[in-house]
Structure formats: C-alpha cells, structure tokens
Amino acid sequence: MATMTAPPSGAYKIVDVPELYGALIKAKGIEGTYVGATEAESPWVPFGDNAAIRHLAFDVRDNVYVNILWIKGPGVIGTHKHRGRVWAIGLEGSFRYLEYPWVCRAGEFITETPGTAHTLVTDDPNGMKALFHMQGANEFFDEHGNHVETLDVWWFMNHYETYCREHNIPINKQLYL
Amino acid sequence: MTMTAPPSSKKAIVDVPFAHRELVARLSPGGRYIDAQTDVDSPWVPFGDNAAIKHLAFDVRQGIFSNILWVKSPGTIGTHLHRGTIVMVCLEGSVRYLEYDWVASPGGLILEVPGESHTLVTEHPDGVKLFGWMQGPIDFFDENGVFVDTSDVWWFINHYETYCRENDIPINPKLYL
Q1: Searching chain B, which residue's CA lies closest to the CA of residue A62?
Q2: What is the CATH number of domain A42-175?
Q3: First CA to last CA across chain A, in angstroms?
Q4: Which of B61, B157, B158 sits opposite A61 (nearest CB)?
C-alpha cells in the first residue's frame, strides 16, 4: 500500500481540512498552549541551592508534568525512583546517571522507564539544562536509602504556585493543560 | 521491607497525610461512578442494526473513550485498525477475532496494541457485551479493504450527543473527564 514519503502540501497557507466535528472540538476540546521564554511566563523556581526548575505544563488527568531542570554547577540530584515514564532532551551542558555509561549533552535524548532508579550527576563546570517530560510518581530517597517523599504533578504544581505566590507572580494558565 | 497485605482493614476513612489536598480539590476533575445497569447515566445508542454502544467516559486530553459494546446476536464488526491501545473485558456472551485462535468469555481480558487490525465476531446466540477502555483512533475499512472512516474520541462523543439530542436525553456531564 502506498504511503506518504513527504508532506503532501507545501502551501504557505492554512488549508481548510474536512472536519465533521469542528463545532464539538471548538466547544469541548482543549486548546494547545504556549509558554514563552520570559520569567514572567514561568520563573526559575529554586530546587535546593544549586538547582532550579522552570515549570512548563501540568496535566492532572494523566499525572504528566513538563519542565526544564537547571543545575547551575557540578552537582547531584540524589537517587530517585520512577513509577512512570520520563522523556528528556539535553539543552545545555551535560548530565549523566551514575547507573549508566552515557553522558547526555545538548540535543541528545534519553528515556527512563517505570521501576528504574537513578542518581543524576553533572560534571560540567557550567552544570546542565534539560527538558523533562514526566508521567507518574518520582520517589526520592536520602543517602541511606530511606524514602523521603514521592513527587508527582501535584508536588510540581505546588512548587510553582508557592513560588509565584511568594513573589507576586501571577499564575500562568498556559501551564495547566 | 514491603507490604504483604493491606496495612489497614479498619472500616473507616483514615485521614492520610498528603500535602496538596487544596490543589486537588481546586483543580482535579475528580473521580466518578457511571452506572451501567440502567439507561439513567447513559443510553444504549444504536451502532448498526445488531449492535449498540453505551458510552461511559470521554477524555479529550488523551483521546480516550470508554464504553460497553453490545452485539445482540451472532454478527460481525468489520475489520478495523487500531492506532492506540485498547483494554477490553468480556461481560456477557463470547467474542473472538478472525485473526486469533482464542475465544473471549465473561471476565476475560483482551488487550490490543497500536498497528494491529481485527475483525470482531460473536457466534454466541446471545451475542456479546464488551467493556472497553480505548485510547487513540480506530480506522474502519469496507469489505474490499477501502478505508471508510476514522473513529476517535470525537466520533464517540458525537455518537453519544447526536442520539441524546434526537431523543431529548440530557447530556450527562459525568461522562466527560
């Protein structure tokens, strides 16, 4: 059976495509979102002394959260275990997990799967930035392996909203899918 | 240490620690119950002459739809291709796919994954009732293998709402996650 080998249209215009349920989608569908690069749209929220998180999306139906993790200099995000899936892409610097042989640099892509535990390290003098798309729960442990807290979309939302409240930054509805 | 049994059998609501209750109360869509023994929560909507669908849930963020498919006597739902993941439980009667050697009976679980196509047949004198939890579009073909239509969450919402409108049945907001 024939299949597309390239986009079938290169027209630089919006093409009206057949849609039986346009009114339904308009009435009950969810609009896509846009979060620009400014701190007014989403600030860097401190995560310990050497790291910060810039929250980009929260989906409470799927327990999905998307953010950029920034570790500002060589450092560690201690061992944590995933109960859901993780997709990440390196943006700046580099990071690795003590559990694996690879190093993720800018433009490189990794996934992590439910049930795996990791210890995130950056050895780069400038640290790292990476975009994370995470689903489900992350369990954090202390250095003796004692469970400390389980983080999910609600923790990440609270992390964002608490910082916004304390700094009089309006909550950006674009973050809430 | 790990649990070997539920750690409490107390028949009372135990107040469990969770830091983000206010957020959940404010922003979670909330769990819910949709009854299937009567038509009060959701009617049987005809799907051809020999089948009907009782719609149970729609999630437009993930493209998920849940329903009970009732084929009323021996019959076939023609070949269709799945682009998402399907979970089904046989509730009554029996059903099989021409593609496989098993026959599903009440209580049995059917899993279907993206990229597979199936031809659903019931040879049971009373047909079959199947509970389904489905993600992603389903492509339907005619008996010559010519593509006819793609059914996704919007098709299923439209199927439900059109019937409700035509029969003066109020739309049940509980069906919309």
Answers
A1: B62
A2: 2.60.120.10
A3: 37
A4: B61
CB pairs under 8 A between A and B: 43
Vertex A97, ends A95 and A98: CA angle to 5°?
125
Position A73, amino acid: G
Q: Which two tokens stand for residue A8?
A: 């079938």
Closest CB from A61, A154, A158 relative to B59: A61
- pLDDT value of residue A163: 98
Evaluate if residue A8 carries a pLDDT over 80.
yes
- C-alpha–C-alpha distance, residues B20 and B5, integer Å: 27
CB A152 within 8 A of CB A86: no
User: Given a cut of 80, is residue A1 above it in pLDDT?
Assistant: no
- Is the separation of the CB atoms in B56 and B161 below 8 Å? no
Nearest CA in chain B to A31: B61
Contact A21 B176 (CB under 8 A): no
Start-end of H helices in A10-95: 22-28
**Rg, C-alpha atoms of chain A:** 19
- Domains of chain B, first to last: 34-171 (2.60.120.10)
Q: In the predicted model, is pLDDT for residue A141 greater than 90?
A: yes
The answer to whether the Cβ–Cβ distance between B157 and A158 falls below 8 Å is: no
Q: How far apart are the first and last CA of chain B?
A: 37
Which spans in A10-114 are helix H?
Answer: 22-28
ipTM of the complex: 0.79
Q: List C-alpha distances in Å: B171 to A138, B30, B132, B157.
A: 38, 18, 21, 10
pTM for the structure as a whole: 0.87
Shortest CA distance to B106 belongs to which of B120, B89, B88, B87? B89
Which tokens is B1 given?
């240490």
Question: Residue A156: which H helix or E strand, with range?
Answer: helix A153-166
- Go through A115-124 and write b for each residue having 16 or more CB atoms within 10 A of its CB, e for each that does not: ebebebbbeb
Residue B112, number of CB atoms within 10 A of its CB: 19
User: Over the range B24-53, which residues count as b (16 or more CB within 10 Å of their CB) and which as e?
Assistant: eeebeeeeeeeebeeeebbbebeeeebbbb
